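## retry 2 of 3
previous attempt timed out at serialization; input unchanged, resubmitting
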Amino acid sequence: MKLDKNEYLKHIDATIANGKYQDNWNSLRQFKVPDWYQNAKFGIFIHWGLYSVPAYDSEWYSRNMYIQGSKAYDHHLEVYGPHKDFGYKDFIPMFKAEKFDADEWATLFKQSGARYVMPVAEHHDGFQMYRSSISHYNTYEMGPKRDLLAEMKTAYEKQDLKLCVSSHRAEHWFFMSHGKEFESDVHEPLEQGDFYWPAMPEPKDHFDLYDCPPSQAFLEDWLIRCCELVDQYQPRVFYFDWWIQNAAFKPYLKKFCAYYYNKGEEWGTPVAINYKHDAFMFGSAVPDVERGNLLNSNLTSGKRIQLSPKIPGVTRKVMCIKRRGRLYEILSTS
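## retry succeeded, writing output
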């Protein structure tokens, strides 16, 4: 059934208006990290999606395969042919997940000592690993023809593992844009609902808070996708990847945060949000240090802490955290 976006946005606003948490930082700082999350210590994060079909370079294959001269671009030409004849979308029928067994995964994760599992629900490529009413480009309608996230939820909860989800949708604003730079299957006209939409120019500096702001249509679509995940799967933690720190996201982050926390109150289930950089006001959610790769990791030292590089070509970035009146810097260079 096709989702009525305007009605859903009204539902989001009504949930916030009638809930404990309002969409402002003062209200959202009522948040407390759930005891279960503090005590869990160990969980499993899963990158598995359409990019697992080419299984080359990285989970950024959908972007990199359209960057002329890159190793992914050359690999794609050699293995699959010209991009105009075989693009990223053509991997969808090849994604069958015929060997996937959620119960087998759950048993393994339980044996590992994990307490929660966090699969990527949607990566930068825009292909959803779950049944969605906002897009046809999902595993229920295409590829495996299965709601993979629902299968995981059922299997994990049988093993007393908490289901969490991760959304990397934000970067889809620009992720497919390099395909417009030469003859490929990424070209205008692109309309909302298309797999490659909107394919806007990629920011020169991913950490410029004001560069290449997404449109209202994209931001509303992003918000609805996130809230749909909350409503359908009731995740215990909602993890966001980077680029939501772009200033245009701020009003929508506050709306999502209030909606999700109010839903947790409604369920009687403590929930949390993970974020990177300075996307959320400190104290309103749980900051994440990717890979946990802090050298001399002591946030109480007041010293600068160096992180390993994450993305080649990305300019230097700084995250500042203020705790008990002291400012700490976490630096990352590449």
